[in-house]
Amino acid sequence: MPTSVIERFVLHAHAALERLAIAQNLEEINERFQQAVRTTMDGFWSYGPDNRLHDVNQAYCQMSGYTQRQLIGMHISELEVRDTPEEIDTQNRRIIARGQDLYVSQHRRSDGSLYDVEVSVSYLPADGGRFSGFIRDITERRQAQDRILRLNADLEERVSACTQELSDMNMELMETNTELERATLAKSSFLASMSHELRTPLNSIIGFTGIMLQGLAGPVSDEQATQLTMVSQSGKHLLSLINDVLDLSKIEAGSAATNIEDIDLRSLVQGIRGIGSSDLPHIMESFYQADQPDWAKSPGTGLGLTISSQLAATLGGSLSVESELGVGSTFTLRIPKSAHLTE
Length: 343
What we know:
This protein is α+β, with helices and mostly antiparallel strands and 343 residues long. It has nine helices and seven strands, in the order αββαααβββαααααββ. The protein has a five-stranded antiparallel β-sheet with strand order 2-1-5-4-3, sandwiched between helices.
């Protein structure tokens, strides 16, 4: 037999073996694909250019409620709720152009109920063209997404309502604070302007009482002297109270002027030596007086430390205190070097 004939025979044999191997591989691949289609949890269908189903798996039968016999030959527009036959044709042209597509749609079950699906479709031009698609039921996922969207919308609405409520409350607080500031300034301005009218009658009472006690207006009996002394002491106490109130009002009104002068430090220290821990948070408050035994109580008004702390603040400084009952008190006055002091 000529060599060329043998060579051609060998080549044909090799080609035949290759085609056989390819066919076997394709058969194995197809078998694996069919096995995957049968066992997948997702639905599967395939249809031709006429848009009628050629094949479906059991998962899609369970998903749709139809039997395989009912589904074969059914036009997919009977299952795709949102698409008309014309829209499906347009979609098929898009799939052919791209080779595949992924979209979300709605399918109708055999009982007429609807469910959301995600469809992944590919196009195979062999055998006149065939579309193969995997269908996943995403109803629960969409419902969860819808719940999240509703919760987010509800949360945003609540946050917006709370924000508006807080804004309204802030506006009310600002208005209230403004009114309080106006009232405080009006009160302080009134008291500061009335200092002369308040002090003058008391000075007259104290002065004339002193004259009567000295006998300059005529003799007085012991009982009268006792009563006049009580009037004088009460007047002086009231004058001290009025002076403290007026000083505090001037500071609040911003009309107080500082005056640096020498003081009796021993008397000051003696007056602030018996302060308990329960009194410390309050001693800077107006009209507050620490609890003391009767023998140690002073006739003060409870405004001294209030005035002192506010004067320190007026100068840009501060007044603080540390104290231990029965041991002693330490008051610290801090005033910046740049403070403007009026002599």
